[in-house]
UniProtKB/TrEMBL annotation:
Protein known as: Condensation domain-containing protein
Organism in which the protein naturally occurs: Streptomyces tamarix
InterPro entries: CAT-like_dom_sf, Condensation_dom
All residue ranges annotated as the Condensation domain in the record: 35-322
Gene3D superfamilies in UniProt: Chloramphenicol acetyltransferase-like domain, Nonribosomal peptide synthetase, condensation domain
SUPFAM superfamilies per UniProt: CoA-dependent acyltransferases
Pfam families in the record: Condensation
Length: 429
C-alpha cells in the first residue's frame, strides 16, 4: 500500500475515543497499554526489531492516525515505513526492570492524530536481547489484540511467517453496512437500571492498586463455576459485589463490564480495539441463597456481554429520543475487567502469595474503582481505587474479602448471603 486509506472507525475505536473526551487532554496517558514480551534465548536484537516491524507492516491499526476534528472520527491508515526501535541496556536482567521502562514510556501521552499509536524498545542486558517492551494506545489494541501480537511475535522469532490478517477498516465498514440496532435498543430500554451514583464520579484523587494471588481462591471459583454451570468471571463479579456491598454499606451497585467482543471467529485475531463497556447492576439481598445469587449474576453478565458491541453515538441519540439525556454513555465509576491469563506466574517469594502487593497509579480521572482479575495456576485479584472512594488499606481489605468469599461460598454451607463470611484470617494485610 503506497497511499493513505481513510474510513470510519469501529464501534470499539469510537468507544475509546469518546471515553478519552471525558478524561480530557491532561489524562490521555491512561489509554496507553504496556506489554513486556520475553525474547527466546539466542535471538538477536536486530531479529527482534525486524519481527516487530513485520507486525507493524501486517496490522493496519499500528499504522493508523485519527482525524478527530469533525463530528465523527475518521481513521487514516498509512503505508508502512521503517521506524526506529531503540535498544535499551538495563542495569539488571529482570522482568521488573523492563516493566519499569514500559511504565515510564507509558506516562507520556501518544498523539494519535499525528503519530503512530505505539512505542517499542528492545531491552538488553550485557548486549543480549531480553524483552520486547511495547506501549500501544488503546485505540489501536485491546488485551485480546495484545495476545495476538505476542503469539505472532513468537512465531516470527521462531522463523515463521504471517498469513493474511483481518483489519479494523473491514470491521468498521461491515458495522456501517449492518448496524447493531439490537444492542442499542437493549441499552436504551435498560439504561434506567444503572445506579446514578455509579456513573462518572468526578473523582480526581490519587489512585492505587492492591493485588493478591490465590491458588485456593481459583480452585474455589472453578468449583463454583462447575457446580453452577456458570462462568468463573461471573462468580468473581458476584463475590466482588458482595464484598463491596459490605464494605460500602450499599445494597445495589452498577459495574461497567469490559466486553471483549471477540465471539465471532473472524474477529478473534484482529489487532484493534474491540472492547466496550457493558453495564450490569447487581442487587445484594442478604436473604438470597448464595448459589441463586451467583446464578443471577451469571445471567446478568452474559446478557450484558451479548449486547457489548454497539455504536455509543447511536446509543446517546437513542437515549435522547427516549427522553433520557445522556452526556457520555462510556462514563462509569466502577469497572470490572476479567483479563484472562496472567502475564506470568508470581515469583515464589512474591508478596502476592501471602500478603498484598501495592502499585501506585498516575490516573486522576475516570473510574474510581476497578476490579481486575486474571488467572493462571491461581487467581490474581486486583482492586484499584481512589483514596476518596476506598481510603487507607481498604483496597487490600476488599481483595482479601473476595478471596475469602470465594473459598467460604464454595463450602456451600450457608443458606443466605448474610451468612457468608468474608473474614480472611490467612492473608497478611
Amino acid at each position: 500500500m503506497s497511499e493513505v486509506w481513510t474510513g470510519p472507525v469501529t464501534y470499539g475505536q469510537l468507544s475509546v475515543l469518546r471515553s478519552l473526551e471525558t478524561h480530557g487532554p491532561g489524562h490521555r496517558s491512561v489509554a496507553n497499554l504496556v506489554s513486556v514480551w520475553e525474547v527466546p534465548f539466542g535471538v538477536g536484537v536486530a531479529q527482534v526489531m525486524d519481527a516487530w516491524l513485520q507486525l507493524v507492516a501486517a496490522h493496519e491499526s499500528l499504522r493508523t492516525t485519527y482525524n478527530l476534528s469533525g463530528p465523527m472520527p475518521v481513521q487514516k491508515v498509512h503505508p508502512h515505513r521503517p521506524s526506529r526501535v531503540p535498544a535499551v541496556e538495563l542495569a539488571e536482567d529482570s522482568f521488573a526492570a523492563a516493566l519499569r521502562l514500559g511504565a515510564e514510556a507509558a506516562g507520556e501521552p501518544i498523539d494519535i492524530e499525528t503519530a503512530l499509536p505505539w512505542r517499542a524498545f528492545v531491552t538488553t542486558y550485557q548486549g543480549d536481547a531480553l524483552h520486547l517492551v511495547t506501549v500501544i494506545h488503546h485505540v489501536a489494541a485491546d488485551n485480546g489484540a495484545l495476545r495476538v501480537l505476542e503469539e505472532q511475535l513468537g512465531l516470527l522469532l521462531e522463523g515463521g511467517t504471517l498469513g493474511p490478517v483481518v483489519q479494523p477498516l473491514e470491521m468498521a465498514q461491515e458495522q456501517q453496512e449492518e448496524p447493531n440496532t439490537r444492542s442499542v435498543r437493549h441499552w436504551t430500554e435498560t439504561w434506567g437500571r444503572i445506579v446514578p451514583a455509579d456513573r462518572d464520579p468526578g473523582d480526581s484523587g490519587k489512585r492505587r492498586r492492591a493485588s493478591l494471588y490465590s491458588l485456593d481462591g481459583l480452585a474455589a471459583a472453578q468449583e463454583l463455576s462447575d457446580r453452577l454451570k456458570v462462568s468463573v468471571q461471573s462468580v468473581v463479579l458476584g463475590v466482588g459485589a458482595l464484598a463491596l456491598s459490605r464494605l460500602k454499606g450499599t445494597r445495589q451497585m452498577s459495574f461497567a463490564l469490559m466486553a471483549a467482543n471477540r465471539l465471532t471467529p473472524r474477529w478473534v485475531p484482529l489487532v484493534g480495539s474491540l472492547n466496550q463497556f457493558a453495564p450490569v447492576t447487581v442487587t445484594v439481598d442478604d436473604e438470597a441463597h448464595p448459589m441463586e445469587y451467583l446464578r443471577a449474576c451469571y445471567v446478568q453478565s452474559m446478557t450484558a456481554y451479548m449486547h457489548g458491541c454497539y455504536d455509543v453515538d447511536a446509543l446517546k441519540e437513542s437515549l435522547r429520543e427516549a427522553g433520557v439525556p445522556e452526556k457520555d454513555p462510556t462514563a462509569f465509576a466502577k469497572h470490572y475487567n476479567f483479563l484472562g491469563d496472567v502475564d506470568a506466574e508470581p515469583a515464589a517469594g512474591s508478596a502476592l502469595h501471602t500478603g498484598i502487593e501495592w502499585r501506585p497509579s498516575t490516573q486522576r480521572s475516570g473510574p474510581n474503582f476497578h476490579l481486575a482479575v486474571a488467572t493462571g495456576k491461581g487467581i490474581l485479584i486486583g482492586v484499584g481505587a481512589s483514596h476518596d472512594y476506598l481510603g487507607g488499606n481498604l483496597p487490600a481489605v476488599l481483595a482479601a474479602s473476595i478471596e475469602a468469599g470465594l473459598i467460604n461460598m464454595c463450602k456451600g454451607s450457608e443458606n443466605s448471603l448474610a451468612d457468608v463470611s468474608l473474614d480472611n484470617l490467612w492473608r497478611v494485610l
